[in-house]
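Z., the sequence and structure:
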Amino acid sequence: MEGDEMRALREARGLDQAAFADWLNTQLSRRYNKQKISRWETGAERIPEAVNDLLAGDIQQPVPRPQLAPTILAVANQKGGVGKTVTAVNLAYHLAQAGARVLLIDADSQSNASIHLGLGAGTILSLEQAGKTTYDFLIKDAELSDVVYETTYKGLHLMPAGLSLADADAGLLTDSIAGKAVDRKMRGLRRSYDFVVIDCAPNLGAVTINMLSASDLVLVPVQTETFALHGVQRLVATITRIRRSANPDLDVLGLVPTLYRKNLTEHRDTLNDMRNQWEKSLHIYEPIPNATILAQAASAGQIVFAVEGSAPGQEVFEAITADLMRIAAKKAAAKGESVYGS
């Protein structure tokens, strides 16, 4: 078995490398850890025969598909340039790789998520002219089937955005009925997808507020620079207001530090400040490094993990994916739902 085959088996179970190591240890009475799994998957070390035999037999069995309660996740931060789109796109990809049906909504008129998934400017303009964008779904009468773009990645669909989405803020601010319609449409997505991941605009405008109001969870990417922490308090305050007024079930999945350079004192200090200030009330993930390859893949309209197999930040995305799968499975079990794969 090759390393990429092992990774595919692991991701099909929605397990990160640490959880996969625990599973192997239970099956084989060994003491493997996530570092060992990483070395096998990257080809740095040969996969032991006992592990090969276990997994070879496992390939013959269908992967059990967990029951998941449909979950809407907003990836939000009112500050731009914090790695929000990279986080949203790569997380959506990892969820799809885990076997979930995933819709990524580009809720930013800058179209960054759409571009990251390979749509060129001409394609986006054509979709706008045809009324097949996020704006048309939220504000107009477009059906879901009209505005969903099937990506080249199995299980991952995209609702693209264009400049027209900038006009939605004004319309939603002045029309309360439109806001209720948006909420109804967003919640209707649960019938078609296991996870809806929303790449919110870098502001707290009406579209972003409506996205948060319709979501179950919020993930907050935070750049590891001094001033980036200042905006977290404002976003948390906004989430608190939304809980009180519109969505009492909205919860913060956690903060994910981004664009991290461990060799910079400012970044290390900011990460420590983030943990000191928020770790008692919010979960803080390990930082996603400031890696050139992530930015290059976004510019090239590719997902780096689909091309390279392994890239900086992989363990962070796997950890977030595992948390989301676990939360969705727990909710499904509590409600007695059987929705996954149905």
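The chain has two domains: 3-59, 71-335. The chain has 17 helices and seven strands.

Let me know what you think.
H.
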